[in-house]
Amino acid sequence: MGEQTGINLELLMKKNLVIPLLVGLLLNQSTANAISENLLNSNTSFALSHWFESHFTKQSFKTKEGVNLVYKKLTISNPKGALFFIHGKSEFSYKYAELFFDISNWGYDIYFMDQRGFGESDRLSDKTQKAYVDNFGKYVDDYDSFIKKELLNKKYTKKILITHSMGGAVALGILERYPNLFNKVFMSAPMFKINTLSYSDSQVILFLTSLMLLGKAKESLPTIKEIPKIGGKEYQLTSSKIRFSSYLELIKRRPELMAGGATIGWSFEALNYIWDLRRRSINTLTTPILILQAGRDVVVDFRGQDEICQNNPGYCKIIKFPESYHELFFEKDEIRNQVIKILYDYVES
Q1: Residue 15 gets which letter from DSSP?
Q2: Per-residue confidence (pLDDT) for residue 32, from 0 to 100
Q3: Continuous segment of H or E residues that includes residue 113
């Protein structure tokens, strides 16, 4: 099932859902192009999920502490290399079905692991729809184990890491352990500094520390909503109402995949981890990194991205998208098509 010999439409034909996807393929024959959001609706969203399930193999493994981690992979004959994904907070593999569909004919094996606390992997709190971790470094440990399981024993000529948001912070931890493993890294809006509004990192950490001492690690972070709404001034993720609606439709069908608002414990761990990461990441990169920076990002503070690049000249480049919100992979077509084209050119270069 993980071996792809072409777009498997048989399952979708049985469900009478193949036509929208077939039209999309015919209109987007260039490998660097993507599905138009005009073709997306509840049927195509449902069809993409089924396509994803029929083409990607689902596997899992347990960490030393017994946390079950689920991952998906698509393997093809004679791949040009491998694309390894690290997702952002509250994300999961099914969310990326459209992107996987877009890039599935590029000629690469694709790997995606749901990180602990997210998607189909084990949750770390009885409040399963809130993001929680007791040590941010465990995300790095988990991906390290994933690499040992699925990458170190394979002889790929090209290995590329693709990340979004929180995944960028995890990736820098991985690059510290494996400075020469990946040929290059592609980062969408990496979380090198969280948007703390008018407060400094140290002020927020001090505030969160007081809450942690009161035993509130697994409580919701004040003012953060479980599921953001499109157009909300305080937490807008994308300007594509269609793609955002498809995402809401997905989590309505599969609510168990959702882990929405951040807990106090997750926020405390994340802020401390990335603050220390920026201090450590000075002239340390040996792997080229391309960062796509979202000009309207209200989730991460892109000054952290600037700092990482300025401290690693020659290994880090930023391409700015002034009109994009945080979710570059899920933006409106005018932005997303550019993102996919840049990703394709970067992977192929």
Answers
A1: T
A2: 63
A3: strand 109-113
Is 227 part of any domain? yes
Compute the distance between CA of residue 332 and CA of residue 46 in angstroms, rounded to an integer: 20
Predicted confidence band at 82 (pLDDT cuts at 50, 70, 90)? very high
pLDDT at 9 over 90: no
Within a domain: residue 5? no
Q: Of 260, 254, 288, which Cα lies nearest the Cα of 175?
A: 288
Q: How confident is the model at residue 260 (pLDDT cuts 50, 70, 90)?
A: confident
Paired with 62 in beta bridges are 68
Stated length of the chain: 349
Q: Residue 25: what pLDDT? A: 45
- CATH number for 107: 3.40.50.1820
With respect to residue 326, please indicate whether it lies within any of the assigned structural domains.
Answer: yes
pLDDT band at 127 (very low <50, low <70, confident <90, very high): low
Cβ atoms within 10 Å of 61's Cβ, excluding its own:
16
Residue 41's pLDDT band, with cuts at 50, 70 and 90, is: confident
Interaxial angle between packed helices 42-55 and 18-27, expressed in degrees from 0 to 180 and rounded to the nearest 10: 80
Q: Which residues is 131 bridged to in the sheet? A: 262
Q: Which two tokens stand for residue 112?
A: 């995606």
CA 53 – CA 17 distance, rounded (Å): 15
Structural domain including 277 reads 10-348
The beta-strand segments (E) located in 268-339 are 289-294, 316-321
What strand order describes the sheet that includes 109-113?
Answer: 57-62, 68-74, 109-113, 82-86, 159-164, 184-188, 289-294, 316-321
Cα→Cα distances 106→18, 154, 160, 259, Å: 21, 19, 13, 31
3-class secondary structure, 344: helix
CA distance 99 to 76: 17
- In this model, does residue 135 exceed pLDDT 80? yes
The answer to whether position 74 is within a domain reads yes
Number of domain units in the chain = 1
Cα–Cα separations (whole angstroms), residue 332 to 23, 93, 240, 339:
19, 20, 4, 11
Coil, helix or strand at residue 59: strand
